[in-house]
Specification:
6 helices, binds zinc ion, single chain, three-stranded antiparallel beta sheet
């Protein structure tokens, strides 16, 4: 634990995280990706986790079967914000099928399932979120934006079948 991380107590008690994971989480927490609002989004939802006070608005444009634009804005604890930023980075330009798969892989990662090398490759930096398994109370924070986005995407696909 170095002095540069001394603010973490306020950010959600991440001091136990692996250094590499912690660096990724802090990077996304301090420099969240894709936070600009999206004009006339196809998907627009708000999610919140009242236990922690995490609140996000998720907007996406879906063209054919591809997420062509995403914007996630909001506030929450460090894990929820880093997770939302990693999600926003991941889905940008991805097919709806790939987004669906990634959400499933993250859920299994957080459950502690063994993942294949291919699945780990899909996750990339998102693997850093696995550090939250040491803080079960924060798993909800991490999954909040992912589960909300996944449900909204399914609903969108039901309304506008490919
Ligand atoms: Zn939280």
């Amino acid at each position: 634990m170095t002095g540069s991380y001394s603010g973490l107590g306020d950010a959600g008690g991440l001091g136990e995280l692996d250094d590499l994971y912690e660096a990724i989480i802090l990077d996304h927490y301090h420099n969240p990706r894709n936070t600009a609002p999206v004009d006339s989004p196809d998907i627009d939802l708000e999610v919140n986790n009242p236990f922690c006070g995490d609140e996000f608005r998720i907007q996406m444009k879906v063209d054919d079967d591809t997420v062509s634009k995403v914007g996630i804005t909001g506030m929450g604890c460090a894990m929820s914000q880093a997770s939302a930023s990693l999600l926003a980075e991941l889905v940008d330009g991805k097919s709806t099928e790939a987004v669906r798969d990634s959400i499933d892989i993250l859920r299994r990662l957080l459950k502690g399932d063994d993942l294949s090398d291919d699945e780990m490759a899909v996750l990339g930096d998102i693997e850093a979120l696995s550090g939250v398994r040491k803080f079960p109370v924060r798993i909800k924070c991490v999954l909040l934006s992912w589960v909300g986005l996944g449900e909204a995407l399914e609903e969108h696909l039901r309304r506008e079948p490919m």
